[in-house]
Each structure stands twice: as structure tokens, then as C-alpha cells.
């Protein structure tokens, strides 16, 4: 991602952001609510078009891809949505099988791979349930299962632990780690939950005022002296206010 | 001082620009839908389901409206013709009016409320809950998956529903005529056949197909461009019904000018 800017109307959300996610790592992007973290994720798979700058995935400039090339790329990038975005008229099985059906996977292999994905997120036996019958944490796990069935190279997580209790949060964090460990997936996690970021990330980047304010390891961010970073990390708005 | 008189002008200007931009967006939307039509593999599997849903779900309301329209037409024709025109002309009026005008238009308006609102609300909810984004990330073109099968189902099934509504309306007019008016079945059918030409049916079905296209396309457009939360879904639904109802009346006049 090079010098990416994105605004809505007169409001500039991303202001010339440059960010690199290295092969095999999990990068957490932290920042206050409404700072543009989800916008950043959506720009990566062109759910939103950038106003300036460029986004490259596997060396391809996302903005220049033709329709078929874009859908090809999206199949290599799994996306876990903030509120799971499950198709509410479909069963859990059909939700998880959607990506596989799209690429023409044979029916018996689809059943097998859906079962594997549900086993990985510890949701076996829920195949016939509808999304409305699941809790928030269960929905997020199904969202993860759906994102991994096509065996993507990259996974984008949009606030995977928001609104969850501490135990379910730990379970989701564990899943993020398993995706990286067992499947070797490169991950980009957007979150404002610092505990979660420390647990899952190899590196952390902080988004503030439309720009990347800090990049480093979880240990480095905990030692950061920038009052804005410290204010966020320590949950102390007074520090950030001093700078403003 | 200048603000006082320029404000209304500015509002008109903004409204004009918004309308023009809306037409532009709708044009772009339809071009994208047209391109997605080539993706038969995606919309082909969804078409039958939408046709069944649209057709079966729409029939009760369409037949209900047509039945009462047929009753009223027969009674009002009899009231109007008394003493001046032979009563078998009730059949003429019921048949011609149902087939040429009230069958397609009343069914179209009813389905704008039912089908158009349903599509706008469903797609609007999918938009605000990121389900449409999720489709895209799974490699589906939402145009092929959501829009094309709904619009095609509308174009195919509206004529079927309107044809059945026409039959129901005429049958209700006939039952009314033989039970409540001093008219026999041969007299009613004599009137029905008097000015009937097969083109009437073609005209009715062409109108119905165009109404089907408008109702479903407008419903998809407003649903697709919903931004915000539950209130935005409500707004999109209302706009879809209002705009498609207006377009049905415009198209009704258009076909009368072009084809009659």
C-alpha cells in the first residue's frame, strides 16, 4: 500500500498511507473507532476505490485489475467481516460452502472441506443452523470458516473480537493464531483491542489522523514514547489530548 | 441579504443536479447489469427460484385486485349504459378495460408495492450488513448473483401474473353480469368478442413485461445503493415503490402512444 488516500465527500479518512504486510506475518492495525481501519481493509480488495496512491497484492496493482482478474485476486484473499456478514437466508453449511461452489468444487469435496473448516473453528454440528440462531462469537467463527474454505493466501480480519466477552475473544485470538500457524496464512488484523493485538500480531501499526502514526513489534509499541500512541495503548485519553 | 432569494433557487439547482446524477447512476447500474448478463453460470441457477418466488407470492394479491376490479367494471358499465347502449356492451367494457389497462396497470402498481419493496428491503439490508461485500470477497459479482436473476424473473413472470389477473377480472365481471345484472352468458361473451383483437393480449403482455423490468430494476437499484442503517433501508424501500409506481404510469402512457 503506497501513499493511499481515501475520502468520503470532503472528509479525508486515509491521508497518504504507506504500509507493507510481509509474507507469513500477522500485522495488527490499531486505532480509535472511525479512524479508517475498515476503509483500509476494503481498499485492499477494492471493495472501495482509493482516491490516490496504489495497493499492490502479489505484485499486482489492484486498481488496474480487470473484472475477472479482480475476482481471481479476491479468491486468494479471505475476508472476515466485523459483524460476520453471514447470508441470513442460508444455513451455516451453505454460507461456508459459497466460496467453494463459486470455484466449481465437486459436491463431495465441498462437504469435506466445509466440515474441515467448521472443525478448525470448533463449530462442527452447526451445519443446519441459520445465522439468526447463533451468538455473536459463533457467527464470527462461521465467518472465519467461510473465509478459509478456499484456502486463501491472505486473511483480512475486520475487528474480529469487537463486542465479544473476554473468553470468546481469547478463543477468536487463538483461531487467528491457528490460521497463521496451521495454514501459513498472512494476516492483517484491524482492531482497537490492544490485548488481542498483542496476542496475535507479529507487528503492530497504529492509524491516527489518516496516517500511520507508529509501526513496530508489540514490545516496541508498549515502550513507545509518543503520547498519542501511549494514550491509546494505555487507554489514557488525557495523553492524546495534551498533544492535540 | 442575497441568501434569502438565492436559497430556493439553490435548492432547485441542487434537486436538478441530484436528479440528473440519479439518472446517471441508474444508467451505469443498468450497463453493469447488462454486462453481468453474460455470467449465465451465476444467475442461471438463481433464476428459477426467483421466478417461483415472484410469481407464486404475487398471485394472491394480483388475483384479489383483478376480481374486485372485474366486479366494479361490470356494475359501473351497466350503470353507465342503462337505456342508451345495449347491455351486452358490458362485456366489451370489462374485456377491453381489463386487458388493455386495468389488468396490467393495477397489477403493476400492486407488485411495485409488494415485489419492488421486497427487493429494495432485502438488498438494502444485505448492503448495510455487508453481505453484498461478502459476496464480492467470495468471488461473486453481485450484479450477476442478485440483480440479473431478479430483473429477468420480473420480465418473465409479470406477464404470467397479469395474464391470470386479466382472466380473473373478466371472469369476475362475467359472474357479476349474470348474477346481478339482467345479462346472460351468451350476451356477455358476445360483448367480450365484439371488438376483441388478439393484439390486445400482446399489448397487455408487453406492458406487463416492461412493468416487471422497471419494478425489479428500480427495487434492485435502490436496495443496492442503500447507505446507513435501518432508516436508510426504509428510505430505499419507500423510494423504490414511489419511483417504480411513477414509471409504471409513464410507461403506460408511452406504450399507448407507441403501440395503439
**Oligomeric composition of the shown chains:** heterodimer
Write the H/E string of chain A, N to C.
EEEHEEEHEHHHEHEHEEHHH
CATH topology of the largest domain in chain A: Rossmann fold
The biggest sheet of chain A, with number of strands, parallel, antiparallel or mixed sense and barrel status, is: 6 strands, mixed
Which percent range describes the beta-strand content of chain B?
A: under 5%
Helix content of chain A: 40-55%
Q: Domains counted in the coordinates of chain A: how many? A: 2
Shape of chain B: globular
Q: Which segments of chain B are poorly predicted (pLDDT under 50) over 5 or more consecutive residues?
A: none
- Number of H- or I-type helical stretches of chain A: 10
Q: Which two protein chains have the largest interface (Cβ within 8 Å of the partner's Cβ), and how many residues from each?
A: A-B, 25 and 13 residues
Write a structural description.
- The complex is a heterodimer of chains A (244) and B (260).
- Chain A is α/β, with parallel strands linked by helices.
- Chain A has 2 domains: 24-56 and 154-244, 3-Layer(aba) Sandwich (Rossmann fold); 87-152, no CATH class.
- Chain A has 10 helices and 11 strands.
- The radius of gyration of chain A is 18 Å and the shape is globular.
- The mean pLDDT of chain A is 91.
- Chain B is mainly α.
- Chain B has one domain.
- Chain B is built from 8 helices and no strands.
- Chain B is globular, with a radius of gyration of 22 Å.
- The A-B interface holds A 42, 45, 47, 67, 71-72, 74-75, 77-79, 81-83, 85-88, 98-99, 102-103, 146-147, 150 and B 126, 129-131, 133-141.
Amino acid at each position: 500500500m503506497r501513499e493511499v488516500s481515501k475520502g468520503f465527500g470532503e472528509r479525508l479518512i486515509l491521508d497518504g498511507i504507506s504500509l507493507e504486510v510481509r509474507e507469513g506475518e500477522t500485522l495488527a492495525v490499531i486505532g480509535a473507532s472511525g479512524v479508517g481501519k475498515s476503509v483500509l481493509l476494503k481498499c485492499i480488495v477494492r471493495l472501495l476505490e482509493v482516491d490516490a496512491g496504489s495497493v499492490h497484492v502479489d505484485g499486482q496493482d489492484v486498481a488496474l485489475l480487470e473484472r475477472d482478474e479482480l475476482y481471481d485476486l479476491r479468491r486468494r484473499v479471505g475476508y472476515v467481516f466485523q459483524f460476520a456478514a453471514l447470508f441470513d437466508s442460508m444455513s451455516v453449511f451453505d454460507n461456508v460452502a459459497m466460496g467453494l461452489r463459486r470455484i466449481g468444487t465437486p459436491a463431495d469435496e465441498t462437504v469435506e472441506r466445509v466440515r474441515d473448516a467448521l472443525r478448525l473453528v470448533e463449530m462442527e454440528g452447526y451445519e443446519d443452523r441459520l445465522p439468526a440462531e447463533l451468538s455473536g462469537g459463533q457467527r464470527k467463527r462461521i465467518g472465519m470458516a467461510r473465509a478459509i474454505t478456499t484456502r486463501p493466501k491472505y486473511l483480512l480480519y475486520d475487528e474480529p473480537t469487537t463486542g465479544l466477552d473476554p473468553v470468546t475473544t481469547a478463543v477468536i485470538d487463538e483461531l487467528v493464531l491457528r490460521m497463521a500457524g496451521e495454514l501459513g496464512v498472512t494476516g492483517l488484523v484491524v482492531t482497537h483491542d490492544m490485548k488481542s493485538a498483542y496476542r496475535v500480531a507479529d507487528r503492530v501499526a497504529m492509524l491516527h489522523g489518516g496516517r500511520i502514526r507508529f509501526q513496530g513489534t508489540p514490545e516496541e509499541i508498549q515502550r513507545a514514547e509518543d503520547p498519542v500512541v501511549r494514550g491509546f495503548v494505555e487507554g489514557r485519553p488525557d495523553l492524546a489530548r495534551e498533544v492535540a | 441579504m442575497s441568501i434569502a432569494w438565492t436559497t430556493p433557487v439553490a435548492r432547485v439547482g441542487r434537486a436538478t443536479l441530484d436528479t440528473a446524477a440519479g439518472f446517471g447512476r441508474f444508467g451505469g447500474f443498468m450497463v453493469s447489469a447488462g454486462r453481468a448478463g453474460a455470467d449465465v453460470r451465476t444467475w442461471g441457477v438463481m433464476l428459477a427460484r426467483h421466478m417461483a418466488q415472484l410469481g407464486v407470492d404475487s398471485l394472491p394479491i394480483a388475483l384479489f385486485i383483478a376480481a374486485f376490479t372485474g366486479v366494479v367494471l361490470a356494475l359501473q358499465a351497466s350503470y353507465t349504459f342503462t337505456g342508451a347502449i345495449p347491455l351486452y356492451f358490458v362485456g366489451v367494457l370489462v374485456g377491453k378495460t381489463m386487458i388493455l389497462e386495468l389488468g396490467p396497470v393495477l397489477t403493476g402498481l400492486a407488485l411495485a408495492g409488494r415485489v419492488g419493496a421486497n427487493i429494495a428491503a432485502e438488498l438494502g439490508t444485505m448492503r448495510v450488513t455487508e453481505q453484498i461485500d461478502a459476496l464480492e470477497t467470495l468471488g461473486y459479482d453481485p450484479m450477476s448473483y442478485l440483480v440479473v436473476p431478479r430483473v429477468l424473473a420480473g420480465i418473465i413472470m409479470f406477464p404470467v401474473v397479469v395474464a391470470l389477473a386479466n382472466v380473473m377480472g373478466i371472469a369476475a365481471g362475467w359472474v357479476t353480469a349474470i348474477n346481478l345484472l339482467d345479462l346472460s352468458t351468451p350476451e356477455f361473451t358476445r360483448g367480450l368478442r365484439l371488438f376483441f383483437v388478439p393484439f390486445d393480449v400482446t399489448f397487455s403482455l408487453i406492458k406487463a413485461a416492461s412493468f416487471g423490468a422497471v419494478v425489479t430494476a428500480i427495487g434492485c437499484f435502490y436496495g443496492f445503493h442503500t447507505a446507513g442503517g435501518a432508516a436508510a433501508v426504509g428510505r430505499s424501500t419507500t423510494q423504490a415503490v414511489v419511483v417504480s409506481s411513477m414509471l409504471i404510469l409513464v410507461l403506460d402512457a408511452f406504450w399507448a402512444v407507441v403501440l395503439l
